[in-house]
Amino acid sequence: MAKKWIYLFDELDQAYAYVGGDWENVRGLLGGKGANLAEMTRIGLPVPPGFTVTTEACNAYLAAGLNLPEGLWQQEVGSPGESREKERQEIR
Question: Within the chain, what is the greatest distance between any pair of CA atoms?
């Protein structure tokens, strides 16, 4: 599986699993705002659909001389054939 650079707000459980279940590590991965928006989504508060680009992606971008890390753009727009209908409907 390719490196996950982007987490939808409703993918907080995946972020928790990736960092070992520690909230401070989730905040380190998603940033404070991204982690809090994901948590608000998890508890059912009205949050517009969205996503967070990880701090790992930001660091990789900077380390690569301002070039996007491999796979980030594909995750952003969706891979060929991948349905983004749920997100499109929520945004409308």
Answer: 39
Any idea what DSSP says for residue 69?
Answer: P
pTM over 0.85? The answer is no
pLDDT in the model for residue 58: 97
SS3 of 53, please? strand
**Tokens representing residue 83 in the block:** 């349905």
Residue 91's pLDDT band (cuts 50, 70, 90) = low
d(C-alpha 29, C-alpha 17), whole Å = 12
pLDDT level of residue 89 (50, 70, 90 thresholds): low
Work out the burial of residue 86: count CB atoms within 10 Å of its CB; fewer than 13 is exposed, 13-18 middle, 19 or more buried: exposed
Q: How many other β-carbons are positioned within 10 Å of the β-carbon of residue 66? A: 7
